[in-house]
């Protein structure tokens, strides 16, 4: 069945109407109820995933996973609809009949194999690791990404420059090739290979679709097509038909009953089953699926060219609309209409940010984040004598190599826990500056740097970023950026606004120049950033770090 062509209903934005946004994160899902007229957030709820991130062994069976694996359970996602959505509506004190639309966003690339009807294969064979959804930070497909990149470069594939010269091990094709070569039986059973962002819409509407955002950034869909069958066959003859599992054609055209859908579009209507899960009326408008980072631009009313939004949490995604098309080394991708219709949408990112700080505190900083922050902020810039590389989860931009690892230089017998903690925070700011400078050197100006995400709660960290970047930081006006962004898209899909720009202007919010750089600290950070760049160049070739990882993997095996 194709995506419905029926135009959305029209509503008076001044009426007492509401929308629901649901953000499916790495460890939990959250729902927020938002007033359509002004974006006021009236109630929210969070459901912590029962299985969280599956990294060591499979649930129940205890089957061990290999290095760099990260899986999730689809049941956790359904539970968010059953638990968080009704709780948010109750907290908001609105009647379900006042809700005119629901929108969702997901981490990406989080991808899963299913039957043609959408049943996850892990529901049928839970003892098989490859039957489970691979979370965005599943990096075990790096060798497969390396082969894809090498072949694409050798053949001069036209799509490769749109991804900064390399695709990531996190994306659909690398993970799909890993599935084929490590679990061919599961690959053969997988009639669909689908982003969780689209799978959840399938469950809500009964309609299979693919959103232009994940298709473009994670599915290597450029200028109306995927990589050719000839290219895929050269990787592995059995991979030639992989695109058939994606089941999509050009934007607005159906292939096997599936269409690539525009952001803010109407994906379908809430089914009776999904209405029972959520407590919403059957038939409510459901917005086209989207990615957590990309919906946040709307929540911050940052949908104009040059407004870069950094969604800072466990990782950081940098997303920015632009009216210019350029090849930016190491970017995660540039996609037409990938953030807002009519503009090019750029994405870059850092694979680990908050995860780095959590790793350090969990393993070495028994005093906790607040205590370490209080000690670290008393230091002068450079007082600890350290510089670090923020590659503890690999490097997403600008090197696109998840086999790289973290480095800390300058430790002595006098080094204290707060010294390392501050150096790790600074390293992530240096990584962000590297990304911004790479964009601007490529002719894509960054006019405003807007911060969203959980790390906004740390003013010390925010000030370091302002000083390192040497530019003011604007901040989103919501603690639930992705969920608010999804709600804004739901308002568009329900017909309350003519487009994302108008809805973002009415419902989004941000504070401009909330943090401004200190000139003296910025000068001091310039010196440290120069050393970061030297380390970046020295270790970026991977010779040492790849060897160490290989030795580790052999020992673990």
From TrEMBL:
One of its GO terms (biological process) is L-arabinose catabolic process to D-xylulose 5-phosphate. Residues 18-209 form the Carbohydrate kinase FGGY N-terminal domain. It catalyses: L-ribulose + ATP = L-ribulose 5-phosphate + ADP + H(+). Keywords: Arabinose catabolism, ATP-binding, Carbohydrate metabolism, Kinase, Nucleotide-binding, Transferase. Residues 309-494 form the Carbohydrate kinase FGGY C-terminal domain. InterPro entries: ATPase_NBD, Carb_kinase_FGGY, FGGY_C, FGGY_N, Ribulokinase. GO terms for molecular function: ATP binding; D-ribulokinase activity; ribulokinase activity. It is an enzyme of class 2 (transferase). Pathway: Carbohydrate degradation; L-arabinose degradation via L-ribulose; D-xylulose 5-phosphate from L-arabinose (bacterial route): step 2/3. Its EC number is 2.7.1.16. It holds the Pfam family FGGY_C. GO terms for cellular component: cytoplasm. Belongs to the ribulokinase family. This is Ribulokinase. It comes from Nonomuraea turkmeniaca. The gene is araB.
